[in-house]
C-alpha cells in the first residue's frame, strides 16, 4: 500500500499570513512601515506569494499600507484583536470539519437522514466548538507571549 502525502489542514496561505502578522506584530513599537521584502526574507516566504497575502490582509482590515520610498505595512488592528480563527477563515474558509456543523458555511450533508439524532454530527459539533474556542482565544499577542515564555523556559533549561 502506497502512503499518501500528508495534506495539511492549514493552507500555506494561512500559515504565511500568520507568520507575516507575527513578524509585523513583533515590530509594532518601531513605528515604521515593514517592507514586504523584509517579511519575505525574515520568514522565508516567497515574495510574490506574500504580496498577494498582504493585500488580502489589508483588504480584510488587519493591515494598512504606505506607498512610496518609505512605504510598507503596519498593523491596522491591534495584535490582541487578530485571532487565528479570523486569519484562517479569511484564507481557508470554514473551520468546521463537516459542512453541517459550520457556523458561517452551513450545508446539510447529502447522506444525512436526521441531523438532530446524528451521532457523527454531535461529535463534530464538540470538535468544532473546542477548536474554534482555541483559535479565537489565540491572538497574535497571545502567540507572541507564548513565544516569549517558551524562549525563557528554553534559556533556563540550558
How do the helices and strands line up, and which of them pair or pack?
Layout lengths: L11 H15 L9 H8 L3 H13 L3 E4 L5 E4 L8 H9 L26 H19 L2 H18 L1
Antiparallel strand pairs: 1-2
Helix pairs in contact: 1-2, 1-3, 1-4, 1-6, 2-3
Order of helices and strands: HHHEEHHH
Q: Are there runs of 5+ residues with pLDDT below 50, and where?
A: none
Task: Write out the strand line-up for the largest beta sheet, numbering strands in chain order.
Answer: 1-2
Number of strand elements: 2
Report on the architecture of this protein:
It is built from 6 helices and 2 strands; from the N terminus they run αααββααα. The protein has 158 residues and is mainly α. Strands 1-2 form a two-stranded antiparallel ribbon. Strand 1 and strand 2 form a beta hairpin.
Amino acid at each position: 500500500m502506497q502512503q499518501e502525502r500528508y495534506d495539511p489542514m492549514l493552507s500555506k496561505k494561512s500559515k504565511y499570513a500568520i507568520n507575516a502578522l507575527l513578524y509585523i506584530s513583533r515590530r509594532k513599537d518601531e513605528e515604521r512601515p515593514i517592507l514586504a521584502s523584509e517579511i519575505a526574507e525574515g520568514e522565508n516566504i516567497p515574495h510574490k506569494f506574500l504580496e498577494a497575502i498582504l493585500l488580502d490582509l489589508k483588504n480584510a482590515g488587519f493591515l494598512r499600507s504606505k506607498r512610496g520610498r518609505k512605504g510598507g505595512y503596519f498593523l491596522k488592528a491591534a495584535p490582541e484583536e487578530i485571532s487565528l480563527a479570523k486569519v484562517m477563515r479569511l484564507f481557508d474558509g470554514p473551520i468546521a470539519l463537516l459542512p453541517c456543523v459550520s457556523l458561517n458555511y452551513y450545508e446539510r450533508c447529502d447522506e444525512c437522514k436526521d441531523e438532530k439524532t446524528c451521532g457523527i454530527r454531535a461529535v463534530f459539533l464538540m470538535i468544532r466548538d473546542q477548536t474554534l474556542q482555541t483559535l479565537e482565544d489565540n491572538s497574535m499577542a497571545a502567540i507572541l507571549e507564548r513565544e516569549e515564555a517558551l524562549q525563557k523556559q528554553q534559556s533556563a533549561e540550558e
